[in-house]
Design a protein that fits this description.
With 144 residues, the protein is mainly alpha-helical. It is built from six helices and no strands. The chain has helices spanning 2-7, 10-39, 45-57, 59-100, 106-119, 124-135. Helix 2 (10-39) packs antiparallel against helix 3, helix 2 (10-39) crosses helix 4 (59-100) and helix 3 crosses helix 4. It is elongated.
């Protein structure tokens, strides 16, 4: 243990950690910038290619120029994407919840089939078939 302490001082360890995390942040920033460039629909292919070349040839300067020029719009585009995803998710949840509530989920389908059976409109075999269909079971498997 003493050998490890004398050959690699604590401040060198801290410096190595700082450099490592700096590289992690740098790569995250580059991926975020490339993601924004290729997600944009307000510039064409040549504009995207131009920004890509600038960031690859002059990575630090290119990234800083992109962040200065497009930083605010980059955040606004990200917020719009998140809002669209959340809206789509909420729409899907409401649609599924409505289908499982009164709109025709398995419980409502089985209740309707039972009502038809009680009225004599369908036979017990047809009721069992409708019940299996509502539960998503194969035709040969008995309904539970």
């Amino acid at each position: 243990m003493l050998l490890a302490q004398s050959t690699y001082p604590l401040l060198d360890l801290f410096w190595t950690m700082l450099v490592f995390f700096g590289f992690v942040i740098w790569f995250w920033l580059i991926f975020a910038i490339f993601g924004d460039i290729f997600r944009r629909d307000d510039i064409g292919g040549w504009g995207k290619a131009g920004w890509t070349v600038v960031i690859i040839i002059l990575p630090i300067v290119g990234a800083l120029v992109y962040l200065i020029a497009e930083g605010r719009k980059m955040g606004e585009r990200r917020q719009a994407d998140v809002a669209a995803a959340r809206s789509s998710y909420e729409h899907d949840v409401r649609r599924i919840a409505a289908a499982n509530g009164t709109g025709g989920g398995p419980t409502a389908q089985i209740a309707e089939a039972k009502r038809l059976l009680d009225q004599g409109a369908i036979t017990p075999a047809e009721y069992e078939a409708l019940k299996r269909q509502a539960l998503g079971q194969p035709a040969g498997e008995p309904a539970r």
